[in-house]
Design goal:
Radius of gyration: 23 Å
Shape: extended
Largest sheet: 2 strands, antiparallel
Number of strands: 2
Order of helices and strands: HHHHEEHHHH
Distance between the termini: 28 Å
Strand content: under 5%
Number of domains: 2
Structural class: mainly alpha
Length: 199
């Protein structure tokens, strides 16, 4: 367990170090450390590509703000937009820091089991009620997904089509899933309370 704790602290130190970088000269060093760490842990690069799709939308929006709305020395000037040296620098810094920090986070969670992460949280002093909440969320989110998939398959076999015309049916499916999740949470709480949890 100590090894995992040191691993967590190491990743945490690197993440905070990357977040504090404010100069362009440190970008190659930061990227190099990230690539070396990625190679050491032997995680397929497709794992990164799979998880970066949605966060990259946020990165793109921030880059637009940095590039086109930052005052400074003009680099590119046109009728519709201006790009400054300062804007380009802020954009490169933000993108590099985000990608490296995101990569480190993926590496840690991909190479560490969720149960070990919960144990580390408890060792670091996080209240047990929060760690238990994280653990139950992780445990039952897959169960809810399985139930929703079963209900969706049953409704599809009864004639529901995958189109916007069935938005009412999809809303009913989601509502039923939320109700079932609440009922299941109540059953789990009652079972744990009977066994002495929280006393």
């Amino acid at each position: 367990m100590k090894r995992i704790k040191y691993k967590f602290l190491g990743f945490l130190i690197m993440i905070f170090s990357f977040a504090s970088i404010q100069k362009m000269k440190w970008i190659p060093f930061m990227i190099g450390i990230t690539l070396i760490t990625w190679i050491v842990f032997k995680v397929p690069f497709k794992v990164f590509l799979k998880r970066i799709k949605i966060p990259f939308i946020f990165v793109g929006m921030m880059n637009i703000i940095y590039l086109f709305f930052t005052n400074g020395d003009l680099l590119i000037q046109s009728t519709y937009f201006n790009i400054t040296y300062q804007g380009l620098e802020h954009s490169l810094l933000f993108t590099s820091r985000f990608l490296c920090i995101f990569s480190m986070s993926i590496l840690f969670f991909h190479t560490t089991s969720y149960v070990d992460v919960i144990k580390i949280m408890r060792m670091m002093g996080m209240p047990s009620i929060l760690t238990d909440l994280f653990l139950f969320t992780y445990r039952y989110i897959f169960e809810l997904g399985r139930q929703m998939e079963t209900m969706h398959r049953a409704m599809y076999m009864r004639g529901m089509k995958r189109s916007f015309k069935d938005i009412k049916t999809m809303s009913s499916l989601l509502g039923s899933t939320f109700v079932r999740s609440y009922e299941q949470a109540q059953r789990v709480y009652d079972a744990m309370h009977i066994r002495g949890y929280g006393r």
